[in-house]
Amino acid sequence: MTDAAISIRGLSKIYKGGKQALHGIDLDIPRGQIFGLLGPNGAGKSTTINILAGLVNKSAGEVSIWGFDIDRDPRNAKASIGIVPQEIVFDPFFTPRETLENQAGFYGVPPAKRRTMELLGKVHLTDKADAYARSLSGGMKRRLLVAKAMVHSPPVLVLDEPTAGVDVELRQQLWDYVRELNAQGVTIVLTTHYLEEAEELCDRIAIINHGRLITNEPTRDLVGRAQEKAVEVTVDRDLDAAPDAACFDKIELKGSRTLVITYDKSKVNAGEVLAAVQKDGLGIVDVSTREADLEDVFLSLTRSANG
pLDDT for 82-111, tens place per residue? Predict the structure, then answer.
């Protein structure tokens, strides 16, 4: 047994035709955390998740789930993980109750140990237990998929874009349940395009871009990288070139009178930046500022990886 809920070493995937989706990824997902796996579209997140789910065969590397190697011990590896896919897929002619009962049967859960109504209650679908699944709204179907992934009580739950197309209230209910599962010891792996969601929920975040892991850090440390602050200064006369000063990390001229200055807020403050502009004899007409956040870190890291 290892301390990692999921351990990935040298994971590569080359699809037929030569497209390489993953380039030797090494990643450990600690037990008991809510772990964010982020990246732009086509970065390799879904390929990674599909390999964990047993839906895609890897080209190289080793993967273990809860200490079970997916090649040497596939049965226990699959029993240790629940996957909530991005696509809403299940038989529309089964009711939610039948969907969960059938799924529990696939995993060999004996009838006496099944938690069908408990799980439906957790995802607020008790009153829909016997309705045809095709009559459920998109948000209800999404929540049913979460319950379906939990029928065999796996210690690891992977949520692939779980709140896409879900309204704010249902999203909040879903996250309340995810936090409850995590408090009970379930390791959660989350992919999302909502960066504020990842910032709020995740203990740690890894970012994949072009099939490569570009960072894997505690969320607080990652957000702490956002020391960059941008200030946009409109001056009182036309400029041929942007002035420079030691306290500027970067400066660019936007139009003939607007300067966009980036600086490190841990080293200087806005007053010092504006004073440096005025030292060149420029009058300041207007100023606007913008704080950096996880989105800025994400864009900065993925841009530099593209370079």
Answer: 999 888 877 888 999 999 999 999 999 999
